[in-house]
Structure of DUF2062 domain-containing protein:
Amino acid sequence: MSQIRQHLRKLLPDRHVLFQNRYLRWLAPYLDHPAFWSLNRRKVALAFAIGLFSGLMPGPSQMITAALLALVFRVNLPVAIVTTLYSNPLTYLPLYYLAYTYGKLLLGRVNHDTMTAVPEWSMSSPLEWLQQVADWMAGLGLPLAVGVPMLGLTFGLAGYLCVRAGWRCYIVMAWKKRKGWRGTR
């Protein structure tokens, strides 16, 4: 077994232990399929891409989207879910600004409209601030609606290619190392 698989097996939960949990036991008939836990480079790379795409989905739907897409494409479920964590409360607004700018670029509206400023944080009324942020995001409209899925697809494609290339480089280096080791005997 390659070093990458050994390392991933240490990081990812064992499915048999996971499904012994009383809260997750009911999911075992649906999720206890080897394809959802496979650690080959194609399935891991596609799961990584799915996680990057799903990480840009709104709010709590990120992990659900990643899980559903992982089930549809029959790829590694934990990798797809964990990869969504790049999007968090600290990165959410910069990612959405990037998506808005990307959407404007794709729609050819680079110089047409300006983006209003993000509402300033108010410690005295956080619920009012959240409402202002929601109104601000709704006002971004079509560029954001186009930019979010397209940026997700771009991130997914880049992630897929990086995982495939990184895995391949690691294997080539391991072959060369093994070949050099055999030659010294």
